[in-house]
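Batch job 17 of 40 flagged for manual review because the log was empty.
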Amino acid sequence: MDSITHIALGGLLGEAIVGKQLGKKALVWGAIAQSIPDIDFLASFFVDASHNLLAHRGFTHSFLFALIITPALAWLTSFLYREEGIGYRKWLAFFGLQIVIHLLIDSLNAYGVGWLVPFSAQRFSFNVLFVADPFYSIGLGISFLVLLVIPLKSRYRVKWAFAGLVLSSGYLFYTFTNKYGINNDVQRIIKQQHLASVRYFSTPTPLNNWLWYIVVEEKNGYQIGYRSVFDRKDSMLFHYFPKHDSLLEPIRSRNDVKQLIQFSQGYYTADRRSDVLIFNELRFGQQAGWFDPQAPFVFQYDLTHPNSNQLAVQRGRFAGWNAASINALINRIKGI
């Protein structure tokens, strides 16, 4: 999830667990604890773009990291706050819960999390939430801001903390029901439309959980379409994108190509634009693809000029967004 959501979530957990002893410092320590796995952003200053793709949400998002950092932080804070009556075990539970929740929440979007690093390179991504979902975050954010303002002696502090946590958790449960329904629809449609499916995935489109981006892998390419939870038609309109895997053959042994294929979990295409060879990672979607079915993909990596890829993932996330495409998104969410 985005950093602001992690900060708000961590602050509410901090208030609920150690708020009585620490007052508003609990919000600060909660925000810190919830943000600790994201220290991997420092890797971007020392490694190239393809290495950084795997470093991000790698070791610092592993259960091994959680096992190492949790007792160290618990020892530090139990020493710093020894007079507040918070023992080592409570701090251990506090940091352990915060970090594990961070790892679980981050696994719900498309990027993937290396829970088992360094023992396994497998990435876990369940594609339930978009990386920034305002409907998940709003309850957390409002409660966090209220807790910053209301007096320490207010009897409503814990209630505000739990209200934000319960509201966001309820929305999270709702997103799982959406995912379940969309996957059932897609599986049925794949059979009805006789698609030569090898595998498929579904993931929410930006900033909502109602319109889903669907990629069905076939032998030599992908069928890509969109499905709303409010769709009434028992069919989908797909557009075919050839994989063009042969374009990578001359450079398949390059480290950045290997890393890109690993990171993409095999969902990629290649294409040439003039003299430039582009690697498209499909899991992050298209640039307003619900508006233009042939829109470019969000993640584009320039294989011809690899040093120009510092912002490979973010380059096209909101490209193509304007009044017309936003209106099309809202209308497509309503269903067909």
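Reviewer: the log was empty due to a logging misconfiguration, but the result itself is present. The mean pLDDT is 94. Unflagging and moving on to job 18.
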